[in-house]
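Hey L., structure's done. Input below.
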Amino acid sequence: MAMPLSPYYTAEMVRQLPDDGQRYEVVAGELLVTPAPRLRHQHLVGRLSLAVGNYLLREPAGVLLSSPADISWAPDVLVQPDLFVVPLAEARTGDWAALQHLLLVIEVLSPSTARADRFVKRRRCQEAGVPLYWIVDADAEQVEAWTPTDHFPRIVRDALEWSPAGAGTPFRLELAELLRPL
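Output:
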C-alpha cells in the first residue's frame, strides 16, 4: 500500500495554519514545525537583541527585528529567523513582503530547530544572498558564521564581528559575554 504524499506547502498555506503556539515555517515546500524554545534559547536571543539593537542605535545600518516574522522570498518559502536585520527603507514600508534583503540573520539552536537552522534555512538564506548568517550553538560554545558562497562555516569561539555597509565601526560581541551563565 502506497503512503500518502505529504502536501507541498506554500507560504500562503502556512499563514492559514492555526495560532497554536507552534512555529510554522516552509522552505521549498517542506513544512517545518517547532515547539516553543527552551529558556536558555530565549535568554540568548534577548542578549543578542540587546547587543545588536544598541549597536544599530549608534550605527544606523539597518533595523533589528525578531520572530515571529513573515520572511518570504518565494511562494514556497516562509521563514522566521530568531533575529534579523533589514535595510531601513524596507522596514519603513511596514509590510513583511517588502523585507527581501536581510543584512544579518541570527539563529540560536534548540534541539527541535538544529536541523532546520543548520541546513534547510541556512541554505535558503545563502540562496537569497543574506551576507551573514550566524548559528549560535550554546552547547558547543561557538557560532557558525556563513556567507552566501561558503561551503563550510567559519567557526567563531572568541567574538562575533559584523561590519555592515555604511557603518563607521564594526559590531563586536565577546562570546564569553554572550554565553555567560544567568
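The mean pLDDT is 94. The radius of gyration is 16 Å.

-- N.
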